[in-house]
Specification:
single chain, alpha+beta, 3 domains, elongated
């Protein structure tokens, strides 16, 4: 009977709460299956399980509620359910999921915040005292106040309030500090293990397979003037695999600067064009810098000949001393890092041969191949359409003395300010109009001293994109003077005596390029492109002497190249391409050369 009386008493208390609370406002309540009923009495929150109300569809609650009889009540079941729901009076905010503005803990913390200025949780720097806070928000705010108050004078009352709050939110403070400690430990681990906080790796790996041949017997011709005729016949060419990897470590110290360190290596693979006597080719590295180096390479693949030993390819630092101006200083870089860019002629995404990817007179092959020390300035006023650039490269700037054989070079060679060197200025206007339409035109001037030849060169580089359709081209004209010992023209014999000594003269040369491209053809991101290039056309020259050498500069060499770049995803592309060289060496004595390839580039 004592148990029955207790149960009945609890049930009566429950009924009273129902009558004066939520159900008084509603007049009725629907039965709740397998859920709890929340009752808010002042600041107290309780839950009632309705597991024993099965079958009751609606409960009418009058303004006065009375239990008439307990004979049919399952008192044991009710008592068990009430014990599980624990409808005791809440005496501490530690039992609440939220802390209300009327709670003593909230008011005590608010007083500390207002007096000591410790704010936590709100980005606008306010303590919103009219809003409820979770216990973890209260703990975070209290923790901020503890850090602040510890450094300031506090009254006895404040210290007592802090102590009481610490006891109230002891569990939450411990959890909060544990999470902070864990976060700090993980952060310390990341800082200790990562390579650099400001360095990113950017790399390109190139797989290339090629095969080519010549249309007939290459008649012997003494291309390099050493007294020996070089030639190759059909069937001498072989398929080859070429590999090259470029790894750049890009580091920023301030967000407005860039230190670029690039390594490169490959398998030393060669292509068909480089194995036929087409012009002269410098080697890695050239001890004298410019001895026997050609002015340009008339057709070799860009990735052919990359050495199988890792070498420093680029080391340059860019910074902006003032707005709109970028300065580059570099012990090793290339003129094309700064000038003569074109959207359709990158060796990684577009054309493949040296004579096609850049203007061979504005950026002579020697400097593009070997690079050098120097610097550059770029000015882009207000980040507008006009950009001015200037670049200086000394290809033997690392040499403090003349390392060439005695008598092989005139005075003033090597070092930062000695030959061979190139100085170029470029003025660009680039803009967009409409959707997916843009154009750029670049006027250029170069002075170079290389291979005992000094030249003033003017050039033009232009491109236009109209939706999916693109046109591009280059032009260059050189006014050159030659000194002694080395023939300045890669496709002609020297004038003068048989040994080619004391050859002094002048020549004019031109270069042309015209290309077309179709973007997003069949596959989004793809490009179908083709270009025709005249790498070196001698328009006026003192070399050779008329009628002295047959088959020299009596034809015009044409380099024809087509490709289709197919992106596999954002990091991989496959590009089949074909190259044809007509009238190699500007000579009627040579035969045409054909070459096909498949280039796969992995970028990451």
């Amino acid at each position: 009977m004592q148990t029955q009386s207790n149960a009945v008493g609890k049930l009566s208390s429950l009924a009273a709460l129902l009558a004066t609370g939520f159900f008084l406002a509603q007049g009725q309540a629907t039965a709740i299956e397998n859920k709890s009923l929340a009752i808010n009495e002042g600041s107290a929150l309780s839950e009632l399980a309705a597991d024993n109300l099965d079958g009751v569809s609606e409960l009418k609650v009058p303004t006065s509620f009375k239990i008439a009889s307990t004979e049919n009540l399952d008192v044991t079941s009710i008592n068990s359910g009430l014990q599980e729901d624990n409808l005791g009076v809440v005496t501490s905010v530690s039992q609440l999921s939220d802390v209300q503005p009327t709670d003593w803990a909230f008011q005590a913390l608010q007083s500390l915040v207002e007096r000591y200025g410790c704010i936590a949780g709100y980005p606008d720097g306010t303590f919103r005292g009219n809003r409820a806070a979770t216990r973890y928000e209260m703990a975070a705010a209290l923790n901020a106040c503890l850090d602040n108050i510890s450094d300031k004078f506090a009254t006895k009352e404040d210290l007592e309030a802090v102590k009481a709050l610490q006891e109230e939110f002891q569990a939450e403070l411990a959890t909060l500090r544990g999470r902070v400690d864990g976060l700090e430990a993980r952060t310390a681990t990341l800082e200790a293990q990562q390579f650099s906080t400001t360095t990113k790796l950017q790399a390109d790996a190139v797989f290339l397979a090629q095969f080519g041949d010549t249309s007939g017997n290459q008649l012997p011709i003494d291309i390099d003037g050493d007294g020996t005729a070089e030639y190759a016949d059909p069937g001498d060419a072989r398929a080859s695999a070429i590999a090259a990897v470029y790894m750049s470590f890009n580091t920023s110290f301030s967000g407005d600067d860039l230190l670029q360190t690039t390594l490169f290596f490959g398998n030393g693979g060669s292509d068909t064009i480089s194995n036929f006597p087409v012009g002269l080719t410098p080697t890695f590295p050239s001890a004298g810098g410019n001895v026997n180096d050609a002015l340009f390479n008339p057709g070799q693949l860009y990735f052919a000949g990359v050495p199988n030993t890792a070498l420093l390819y680029r080391l340059a630092y860019d910074f902006s001393p003032v707005d709109d101006v970028t300065i580059k200083v570099a012990p090793l870089f290339y003129p094309t890092d700064v000038i003569d860019a074109n959207s359709y002629t990158s060796p990684f995404t577009g054309l493949s041969t040296w004579s096609s990817i850049n203007n061979p007179l504005i950026t002579p092959y020697h400097f593009n191949f070997l690079g050098g020390a120097g610097g550059a300035v770029t000015w882009n006023p207000s980040e507008g359409p006009v950009t001015a650039r200037a670049v200086y490269v000394a290809s033997t700037g690392q040499n403090a003395v003349d390392l060439a054989p005695a008598g092989a070079q005139p005075a003033g060679q090597n070092g930062l300010f000695g030959a061979p060197f190139q100085a170029t200025g470029e003025l660009e206007y680039a803009n967009t109009f409409g959707d997916n339409n843009n154009f750029a035109v670049r006027g250029q001037y170069t002075y170079f001293d290389q291979n005992f030849t000094q030249a003033h060169v003017v050039g033009l580089n232009a491109e236009v994109t109209l939706g999916q359709f693109g046109l591009y081209g280059r032009y260059g004209y050189a006014f050159a003077d030659s000194q002694n010992q080395v023939n300045p023209l890669p496709f002609s014999q020297a004038s003068g005596d048989a040994a080619g000594v004391n050859n002094v003269g002048r020549f004019d040369a031109q270069t042309f390029q015209a290309g077309i491209a179709f973007n997003d053809l069949v596959v989004p991101g793809s490009t179908l492109g083709a270009a025709v290039t005249v790498p070196f056309l001698v328009s006026d020259s003192d070399f050779p002497r008329a009628g002295t050498v047959a088959g020299v500069n009596d034809q015009t060499q044409f380099n024809i190249e087509g490709y289709y770049r197919l992106p596999v995803n954002d990091n991989i592309s496959i590009t089949p391409a074909v190259q044809v060289i007509l009238n190699p060496n500007n000579s009627s004595l040579t035969r045409d050369i054909y070459q096909g390839l498949i280039r796969t580039v992995f970028s990451f």
